[in-house]
Amino acid sequence: MATDFVPLTDVPRKIKELTGQDDVPSYNVLKLWGYDAKIPVVRVNGRLGIEKRDLPEIAARLGLSVPSELAA
User: Fold this and answer.
1) Which residues contact 68 (CB under 8 A, 6 or more apart)?
2) Which of 45, 69, 70 shows the shortest CA–CA distance to 58?
3) 27 within 8 A of 21, measured Cβ to Cβ
4) Best CA proximity match to 26, nearest among 62, 70, 53
5) How many domains are there within the chain?
6) Which mean pLDDT values do the consecutive 10-residue runs of the chain (72 residues) have?
7) What does the pLDDT read at residue 69?
8) Spatial CA neighbour of 54 closest among 62, 25, 46
9) Helices 11-19 and 27-35: crossing angle, nearest 10°?
10) Residue 5: how many CA atoms within 13 Å on its side-chain side?
11) C-beta of residue 49 within 8 angstroms of C-beta of residue 6
12) So what's the pLDDT on residue 65?
């Protein structure tokens, strides 16, 4: 799982890279969404983050479009 873990602090940048869009919520917004179970989050060694495979789903929940070849 460690290689699939993306720290929540890196998620905004990863979503920007995935979608090519700049209007991505901040770390603080994503943290609150995680606490409210609006996005899937995991805790590894005390750090809050996501599993890499969840990036397209999180982008979609944020209303951001993901290129179809990357969504699968």
Assistant:
1) none
2) 70
3) no
4) 62
5) 1
6) 84 95 94 95 95 94 80 54
7) 64
8) 62
9) 100
10) 11
11) yes
12) 87
Domain carrying residue 27 = 2-71
Which three-class secondary structure state does DSSP give residue 63? coil
Task: For residue 22, list its beta bridge partners.
Answer: none
Give the amino acid at 69: E
Instruction: Name the 3-class secondary structure at 64.
Output: coil
Q: 13: part of which helix (H) or strand (E)?
A: helix 11-19
In which element (H, E) is residue 4 found?
A: none
Show the tokens assigned to 22: 């700049």
Q: What pairs with residue 6 in β-bridges? A: 50
DSSP code, position 2: G
Name residues whose C-beta falls within 8 Å of residue 58's C-beta, 6 or more positions apart in sequence. Answer: 11, 15, 30, 39, 40, 50
